[in-house]
Specification:
Elements lengths: L3 E4 L3 E4 L4 E2 L35 E5 L7 E6 L4 E2 L10 E2 L5 E6 L5 E7 L3 E6 L5 E4 L9 E4 L5 E9 L6 E7 L3
């Protein structure tokens, strides 16, 4: 006889206390461009389903007050390099920000402005992981979706050398 406790959609804890993946995915979140293939699983995985550290917002194409900005502190306890070769920096388990976006014809850009060396990790609506270190100039990261999809973008702001700092995440259609 087996007794189980359901903990949301993420895991089932058996009588022995060992976590199991109820869907047989090995804890992975899918394969994407920043993955380098294979599945990502194991202890300490970034969790797109967790509540965002610095809030969430809904924006539709052509949104007012562009760019939108969110004050954040970069860094965390997880190494983003486990997501693939293009991912670097230390990130938190929960996303820093969650954007639900209704796409149009404009590109969608996420970037970070910070005095520290920040990185950017995004889990897109397609389930793929996208990462950047310095494309925004200097040590600032930036990722542009030239044909963005409607859906949820979970965003992590990492600390390249592990030393987090204050910064500003921006979201724009004007770049």
């Amino acid at each position: 006889m087996r007794i189980i406790l359901a903990l949301g959609a993420l895991a089932i804890i058996g009588l022995s206390g060992c976590a199991e993946d109820p869907y047989g995915y090995g804890g992975g979140y899918g394969v994407g461009p920043a993955y380098g293939g294979g599945s990502y699983g194991g202890y300490g995985a970034p969790d797109p389903s967790a509540r965002a550290n610095y809030g969430e917002e809904y924006l539709g194409a052509g949104f007012d007050d562009d760019p939108r900005t969110v004050s954040i502190v970069s860094g965390g306890e997880l190494n983003a390099s486990s997501l693939g070769d293009d991912c670097v920096g230390m990130i938190s388990r929960a996303p820093d920000f969650q954007l639900t976006y209704d796409a149009g014809d404009l590109p969608l850009t996420f970037g970070v402005s910070s005095y520290t060396d920040a990185t950017l990790v995004i889990n897109g609506p397609d389930g793929d992981w996208y990462c950047d270190d310095d494309s925004g100039g200097g040590t600032d990261p930036e990722i542009t979706f030239y044909r963005p999809r409607s859906g949820v973008y979970d965003v992590w702001v990492g600390a390249f050398d592990g030393d987090g700092g204050e910064g500003e995440l921006f979201i724009t259609e004007l770049r």
